[in-house]
Design goal:
- The N terminus is likely disordered.
- The protein folds into 3 domains: 213 residues, Glycerol-3-phosphate (1)-acyltransferase (3-Layer(aba) Sandwich); 42 residues; 136 residues, no CATH class.
- The longest helix is centred in the C-terminal third of the chain and has 40 residues.
- It has 17 helices and 10 strands.
- By secondary structure, the protein is of the alpha/beta class.
Length: 485
């Protein structure tokens, strides 16, 4: 007899009492669906493991690359709802990494189309939490096509996701906050509109305050600012969409300025940097307190530049003259501070004794770290001389070089000692020895500079006194700067 298929049609595959093959064989569609589902789960798991591994690596890089790190208002970053994170962008790829490393949740990134040029990079960034967005510099002048990118961003935020964006549209040297693009505001307002302005989307500003993003063992202060509630612009959006976008962009800019030392131009940046050096050496402060003092100084410098140009020019001339003098003498500002310290001359024998005791640790650290440091410097200098990308290439090349050399050096220690305990001990002391070498070099250099000033004072006392007076005049100019509330 003929059997009926499960779909109601007669089945001619069998004409016996045996069960129909349609019922015993798995449907190809179901099998493919199960296979695709398992593959999707495997890819998703791999993406998560990769993301968390990168975060762990970034934490390691930050610990090695930056001598000092501090975070302010870190509690604001643990945002549970949909949000857009925006930050300044002086350090290329390190900026988003330095931002999202503080967050427990996984963040998607709006990335420039230039990162997707090769087939591999296109596959990699597309599959690992990045959404491509075009700029005119990426398209060669042709009209931009970001409709799909904005759609993906809106869908991600609607699902309660978090998105990182660099609103300046590119990475720039210096501490200036460049003109912001309207992309974050447009995405935010369109997303809220699509959800009836009930989504609760917020824009979280992050200030990345580097002492020098390209310099190894520099400092980084990360400040999380007050979030901007996008729904509060509902009336503006309904009245004038373009005006609302501009208004929200201006609000984002103001919130970023609140968490940054944003200078107007390179001239202002250099003057502030020199003021920071003098004030920090004269009265050392932790990173955030130093930032607040520098913020007050910057505000006053900008006021003098606009309202009292004569005072500004005089301060600039004094500062330039002072730093030219100490450069000519081959000493640092910190050395002048040490030289003026009452107990410096009496304490130098104790310092020499400390240096002698620390010398073996310095030697171990210097010898073990010399090759990875020099190889990193040479590779970065030869392969990529663009200073904008230096903050990215130096940490990445450095971590690879360090891993290779620590493996090689540990193998050499084991090869000559034939002792696993000695090899394990070498790994444990590798990084502490490097820190000891760093301390030794800084202290010894400072000691030699201070001694040079003392010898110079014996031969030409008036010249040294003139330099000291210049420094006092600069400090006097800044002593009247009011502190912000």
């Amino acid at each position: 007899m003929l059997h009926r298929s499960p779909f109601g049609k007669r089945c001619a595959t069998t004409k016996t009492q045996q069960p129909c093959q349609c019922l015993t064989k798995p449907l190809p569609l179901c099998a493919n669906l199960k296979k695709k589902t398992s593959q999707f789960k495997a890819v998703k798991l791999f993406r998560i493991l990769f993301y968390e591994s990168v975060k762990l690596l970034v934490r390691l890089v930050r610990w090695v690359y930056y001598a000092k790190r501090a975070t302010v208002n870190g509690g604001k970053v643990q945002h549970g709802g949909p949000c857009i994170i925006v930050s300044n962008h002086p350090g290329t790829l390190m900026d988003p990494l330095n931002t999202v490393v503080h967050m427990r949740r996984r963040i998607h990134f709006l990335a420039n189309a230039s990162l997707f040029k090769t087939p591999f990079s296109d596959w990699f960034f597309t599959n690992f939490y990045c959404i491509k967005v075009e700029r005119y510099v990426d398209t060669g002048g042709r009209p931009l096509n970001n409709k799909n990118s904005f759609r993906l961003a809106t869908e991600h935020l609607t699902r309660g996701g978090c998105l990182y964006m660099a609103p300046e549209g590119g990475s720039f040297e210096g501490r200036q906050l460049h003109k912001l693009k309207t992309g974050p505001a447009r995405i935010a307002l369109n997303t809220e509109q699509a959800n009836g302005f009930n989504l609760g989307l917020e824009i979280l500003p992050v200030g990345l305050n580097y002492s020098n993003p390209s310099e190894f063992r520099s400092e980084l202060l990360t400040i999380f600012g007050e979030p901007v509630k996008v729904a509060s612009f509902k009336n503006d959006w309904e009245a004038d969409k373009i005006g609302a976008v501009r208004k929200l962009t201006a609000r984002i800019r103001q919130h970023l300025l609140d968490v940054l030392l944003a200078t107007a131009d390179e001239e202002e940046d250099k003057l502030l940097a020199k003021a920071e050096i003098i004030l920090q050496n004269d009265n050392p402060m932790p990173l955030f307190e130093h930032y607040q003092r520098a913020k007050d100084i910057l505000r006053e410098i900008q006021n003098w530049r606009k309202g009292q140009p004569e005072k500004y020019s005089n301060l600039k001339a004094l500062t330039t003259a002072y730093f030219n003098k100490i450069k000519k003498l081959r000493v640092s500002d910190e050395a002048f501070v040490k030289m003026q310290h009452a107990g410096f001359k009496q304490n130098w024998p104790a310092f020499i004794l400390t240096v002698v005791v620390a010398f073996p640790f310095f030697l171990l650290g210097y010898l073990s770290h010399f090759l990875p440091l020099m190889s990193t410097h040479q590779i970065c200098r030869r392969l990529y001389d663009d200073p904008v990308w230096a903050p990215t290439f130096k940490p990445l090349v450095g971590i690879v070089a360090y891993l290779l050399f620590i493996v090689l050096q540990t193998w050499l220690v084991y090869f000559f000692s034939k002792n696993t305990v000695v090899a394990a001990a070498y790994i444990l002391v590798f990084f502490p020895a490097g820190l000891a070498a760093e301390w030794f070099i800084k202290k010894w250099k400072l000691f030699l500079e201070a001694r040079r000033i003392c010898h110079l004072a014996k031969r030409n006392k008036k010249e040294v006194e003139a330099v000291v007076q210049l420094r006092k005049d600069i400090l006097s100019s800044y002593s009247s700067v009011p502190r912000a509330n």
